[in-house]
Amino acid sequence: MWPVRGDRRNPERREHTASWLDILQTPSPVIVYGASALALFLLLFVLPMTPLLIDGDQAINLHGAARMVAGEAMYRDFFQYTLPGTELLYAAVMKLVGVRAWIPNATLLAVGVAMMWLARVISRRMLSSAAALLPGLLYIALAYRQTLDATHHKFSILFAMAALAVLIKNRSLGRLLLAGMFCGLATGFTQTRVLVLPAFCLFVAWEGHVRRFGWRRMLVAQAALILPFLAVLAAMSVHFIASVGPARFFDLAVVFPLRYYRGDTEFNTWAGYLRGGPQLTGWASVITLAAWVFLHVIVPFIYAAFAVVCLRRTSKMRSWRELEPWAAPLLVAMVGLALFGSIAFAPIWPRIYEVSLPALILTMWFADRSTGIWPATMRLVPVGALALMLGASVRAQTRWYGVLETAVGRIAVADRNYFDELRWVHEHSSAAEYVFDPGDSCMYVGLGVRNPTPVPFLTPTDYTRPEQVDEVVRGLERRRVRLVTWPRYWPLDAHDGLPADDHLGPLRAYLGTHYRLMKTLPERFVLQRKPA
After folding, report:
1. Is beta strand 409-413 parallel, antiparallel or unpaired with respect to 483-487?
2. Residue 185 near residue 85 (C-beta atoms within 8 A)
């Protein structure tokens, strides 16, 4: 903490002048970043510039932001349980450029490049200059490209890694203040990222103890982390707390996810761990399966391996000079473990992928320190990772796409059935018309139609509360909504034998009374309101 100005890496740290990756002569960062950015662009846009419509949770945040731009208030006029960072960010962009289909795709491209840069900043404190490119490149090639969903998780992890990059070199007062701000931003997007702040506080306390700082200096260091964190979090939330009241805000941001999030599917619980792995359907799926196994092995088990090695190597060390080479790896491990803790309640594979960067950095640190066959087998990793990215991009560009011109711009849709459904709804509705689909928020984002209810989507589980179903019925009646689409795999008629946690009965009864079947699409029924 606050070292002498101009502090450099510990002179006792092992030099890497003859590193295996130096021998390989890895391409320059500009080449690696450029090739990775190009590959991501080709995964997110159909040439020349048509954004691919991505079906994911990002649609909830994007449509919420569009509703805010239209004058609605988050938490009061529409439901959300995450903190407001994502909607605030998207709303700010939409006020500048309008509600456009390319916004999430451009966001994913920018976040991916930023994550690669942060990974290199962090890795350079632990690895040789050539090896420092590897963790970020592997993260993009193995994990990021498989989770292209511009939801709140992406932003919160980006800010958590930014805080780590700020503190990895030293813990000066200014860096502690900036890291606290980044922790506040990370939590303001995903509330479970609050665990990252205690990780930094514990590390700072350990460093202060080893370096024998006085209690006042240690207290100032902790305050430098905590106070900016609280200030940023308060600035992001105070308007919404005032809008709906502290009790309602607490109920949405804390009580609802704790009580009802697990009620949706088993993938929202521990049962989601090691589930949903890729199926072997060709040579490309073999690589995908290998990446799935590799990332599940290193997250979180690489942290346990580091703990064993660190304790064994440092147990007899007492001075900061001896312990300093272990400071950066220890900080990475603590932050990585905190990130894993933030998804441990539902460790499904996309979440494990998203928090895997610290584990990849530690894995490369182990590899860079080892000798023998392991480094030799890793010499082709940069070339292999770039080839994997570019190969996936070529496959993405040569597959079938349907293109629609909508109110939010041109979009490309890769699924034929979904394209047919979107095209039918687009042809039979007008821009900004109220259309309700209880299971698909992506339709609102892709077509520019509006949700007439406060609820972004419904589920036939305890995740959807009875009062939300009542709000949906009131919204449909108040706005006299003409078109409703309904998933074909949900029962449309209320009948005995439905699960006890299915609360959609009043909505089914309302639809049966006021709507008739208009069209049967591949995966949806289209219901039209009956004449008065």
Report:
1. unpaired
2. yes
pTM tops 0.90: yes
Closest CA to 235 of 181, 158, 166, 164: 181
Q: Write b or e for each residue in 209-241: b if 16 or more Cβ atoms lie within 10 A of its Cβ, otherwise e.
A: ebbebeeeebeebbebbbebbeebbeebbeebb
- Alpha-carbon distance 296 to 348, whole Å? 10
Asked if 431 contacts 407 with a C-beta cutoff of 8 angstroms, the reply is yes
Residue 404 DSSP SS3: strand
Q: What is the pLDDT of residue 275?
A: 85
Contact between 389 and 137 under an 8 Å Cβ cutoff? The reply is no
Residue-wise pLDDT tens digits, 235-244: 999 999 999 9
Buried b (16+ CB within 10 A) or exposed e, 126-156: bbbebbbbbbbbbbbbbbbbbbbbbbbbbbb
Enter the tokens of residue 92.
């700010």
5 pLDDT band, cuts 50/70/90, is very low
- Chain centre distance of CA 485: 28
Tokens read off for 383? 């070339």
Task: Kindly report the number of other CB atoms within 10 A of residue 72's CB atom.
Answer: 14
pLDDT tens digit string along 18-60? 444 443 444 578 888 999 999 999 999 999 999 999 988 999 9
What is the C-alpha to C-alpha distance for residues 291 and 276, in angstroms, rounded to an integer? 13
Q: What is the rounded distance in angstroms from the CA atom of residue 69 to the CA atom of residue 155?
A: 20
| Alpha-carbon span 295 to 201, nearest angstrom | 27
Q: Which residues contact residue 52 at a Cβ distance below 8 angstroms, ignoring those fewer than 6 apart? A: 43, 44, 45, 46, 105, 396, 401, 411, 412, 413, 414
Q: What pLDDT sits at residue 277?
A: 79
- Give the list of residues 6+ apart from residue 38 with CB closer than 8 angstroms, or none: 390, 393
Q: Which two tokens stand for residue 246?
A: 């502290």
CA distance 481 to 528: 9
Residue type, 257: P
